[in-house]
Structures are given as C-alpha cells and as structure tokens.
Amino acid sequence: MNIKPIILAVILIGAVIGLKAQYTDVNSVINYSDPRIEDLVELHITYNETFPLIDGYRIQLIMRAGNTALDEVNEIKTEFEESQPTINTYVTFREPYYRLRVGDFRTRLDALEFMESIERSYPQAWVIKDKITFPELTKYKKTFNYE
Question: What is the pLDDT of residues 46-55, one digit of tens each?
C-alpha cells in the first residue's frame, strides 16, 4: 500500500480547513473595546479643560521697565486692539518688565506671516515661544462635522 497519497490528502484537507478558519466576511467589523480606553479619553478631556494652554508662539510688541511702563504698554495695547480686533493681546509682568504679546499662533511660520503684516507699525516686534490658548481651526472646518 502506498502511504504517500494518504499523507498528501490529510495535509491538503488540513490546509483547506486552516484557510477556512482564517476567512472572515469583508463587511463585518469586529470591535474589541477595553473600558480603560474610555477612562483615559475622559481623563484627557478633563486635563485639557483644566489646563487649556499648549506650546505655541506669540509676537512680543514691546517690553518696558520704569514708572510709566504700564501706561505705555496699555496705550500700545489699545492702539493694537483698534487696528487688529480679532487678535488676542496679553500684558504680562515679570520683574522689572511689562510685556505686550499678541496672538495665539500654533507654528512659528504662522507668527512670522502675521508679523510681516504689522512690522511697519511695530518694527521692534519679534516672535517668541510661549504657552498659548488653543486657537480655533477655521481652515479645517469643512473637513470635519462641526455643529
């Protein structure tokens, strides 16, 4: 008796059964969800609501020290807000200087682009790295389902 054809038949049957076990319906979706993932997402959302600042860039218009520094900074702030009402302004104090910073730019390139538009009025302005509030992404509104 020849054993080779029987062994070959058993191997082929095993291979066919193995292939059928690996086959799944293309349209079916298997969702394995761990409840800890949802907890982590909730924790992330809470953290971002508590600490809404991210790394970004601002433009520092002026930095002054002295008795009249705050008045000078506020005067320039008012002037800037009248000419650029959509850009946020921030007055900060770090001894001995008052600083006027503007904008919430996510990239240095965005900050440099805006600085070019105001450099005639504020020739001493420069781009600095700072913590910013997360700006609204108006460029991408058409790509997501916004309510």
Answer: 887 888 888 9
Could you list the residue range(s) of the whole structural domain that residue 102 is in?
53-133
Question: Do 90 and 102 contact (CB within 8 A), yes or no?
Answer: yes
Per the structure, the count of domains in the chain is 1
CATH number at 60 reads: 3.30.70.1070
Beta pairing, strands 89-94 & 126-133: unpaired
C-alpha distances in Å from residue 145, one per residue of 133, 141, 142: 22, 8, 8
pTM across the whole model: 0.61
Residue 9 belongs to some domain of the structure: no
- Strand ranges across the sheet with 89-94: 89-94, 97-105, 53-65, 126-133
Q: Which of 53, 52, 61, 55 is nearest to 114 (CA)?
A: 61
Task: Render pLDDT for 93-114 as a digit per residue (tens, 0 to 9).
Answer: 998 999 999 999 999 999 999 9
What does the alpha-carbon distance between residue 56 and residue 103 come to, in Å, rounded to a whole number? 10
